[in-house]
Write a structure and sequence with these properties.
Layout: H1 2-18, H2 23-56, H3 63-74, H4 93-106, H5 109-132, H6 137-145, H7 150-154, H8 162-177, H9 184-198, H10 203-216, H11 221-245, H12 252-257, H13 264-281, H14 283-298, H15 303-319, H16 330-347, H17 349-361, H18 389-397, H19 399-405, H20 412-420, E1 425-429, H21 433-439, E2 443-446, H22 478-484, H23 492-505, H24 514-523, E3 552-553, E4 556-557, E5 563-567, E6 572-575
Parallel strand pairs: 1-2
Antiparallel strand pairs: 1-5, 3-4, 5-6
Amino acid sequence: MSIGLEGVQTSCNMRLMRHPDHRQCLQALAFDKIIVKQASLWVLVFGLFFVAVVKTAWVSEDAFITFRTVSNALSGYGLTWNPVERVQAFTHPLWLALILPFTALSGDPYWTSLALSLVALAVTLLLFGRIWQRWDLAALLATASLLWSHSFIDYSTSGLENPLTHALLAGYVLTWLREELPRRTFLLGLLVSLLFLTRPDAILLVGPSLALHIWQKRQCFARIALNVAMGLLPAVVWIAFSLFYYGAPVPNTALAKIQNGLALAENAQQAVNYIKWTIDRDAVSVVLLLAGLIGGLRDRKLRVFAIGLGLWVAYLFYVGADYMGGRFFSAPLLLASVLLGLQLRKYGSLLKGLWAVYLVLSIGALQTTVFSPSTFDQKSLAESGIADERGFYYQQLGALSVLRRGTWNLHPWLLEGAALREVPGTYTRCAVGMTGYAGGPDLYWIDPLALTEPFLARLPARSGGRVGHYERAFPIGYLESTVTRQNLIVDPALRRLYADVDLATRSSLFAPERIAAIWRLNTDKGAYISSAFDRQAVGLPGTEAKTKSKFSCYGVPYGSDGIWRIDGPPVVVLRASFNFSPR
């Protein structure tokens, strides 16, 4: 690159000798130098993030729920979990739509998800460069703050949708800030639509800004509304498809986690626990969120994004946050870093100096990101039920660990699923992702946490369970119904629910009464309420429920829950055992 610049300089000097007025040449030279400097800074920024993400790259247990859906689709079973029923067990249609074709080419969903995550990271950083317009100190400090964030770096991979959410959110902010863009309204609507298809609740972060844009253009309301509607069309089409194909306009995971029947106070306490957990283990992320929120509130133009951050926090209190420490903060952190950077640029050197000092004083946070060791292992559960999920799975499913071992198929749950391929049947387990994926389509899984189960997802969860693990009791006759494929539910209201869920998810798409059943499931939920249902009666037939702590499932402590085979009728529950020694 320096040789080319010297050539330009020589050319300018020669023109100076012949033509004193050579401003255009000097301007071109200065422009080339700026381009080289900016490109070098972007390469530096991307290089640091690349190192951090490669050192921390991993895949979560929940990602394997998506991988099984992908595997079923590629095997001709449709977008299903258990092939005999249509259930949207994944939250992220757009992320799945990317993983599916590339897995078809590679044959490996694990590496496909990680490769797509790296691409999404590169796109995010490119869009950051466009947002900043130039990589000055403010831009570098704000962007580098994400390197200090355990939450952001952890969920720049994981096999889940977060990296795609980051890229789309950065694209939305860029589009919103560039008022001169042609068809800007359509693009804003489209990006909101894509965010919805990646993670439905992410639209809370951008909804206020889209509403403000529509209000500002209200004098041309008809044209604006048309452009927004055109942009939102992909989301509308998916919702219509989901309602027709799955019988619900939202993912089954939303039914299982949001409509859990728990009191708002219990969910709010879980949100408080989530914030406390983050403060204890990832304080830089909390400070960054607060700095972005305050910076956004101080700027009239950016205030709508600060409102979006506020809505996200309120949403955490409504749904009870999550058990995956940091996951629910990764996208808000990206937005906060943009708000911080724009404010650092606006308020001069003092603020930039203070933030730089803070990052230096917090340098220890890099031990979980850029300097994360290959021995990273954190399997302890907080009393609140929140966990460092990367710490739980990194030694078996971290990219560097996988490269050392030569395969990602050595986690005990994957080995158990592979062993069960030889004995098809009906099984139940409290963590169905890896075992369900490895077990293949001939194993029917009953999920007591209801992430993949359309009937249980519509029942209230037991109280006192672990956050994000909303266990359902099995109604009398449910296991018999599942094994025999007949409606043997005893309670009349729940019997009606089972019948309508069966029509919606198992009958042919154009079966008589199916549309009516879908209508009832989505509009007449009161018809399925049963005062006789005991939501606390968790357990399995023939097994003793010894505890109902948040670290239990089926009434037995974690580690003893295991895998159970359901046979019958009459129903017989057998504990699965394995004679291999997982490495």
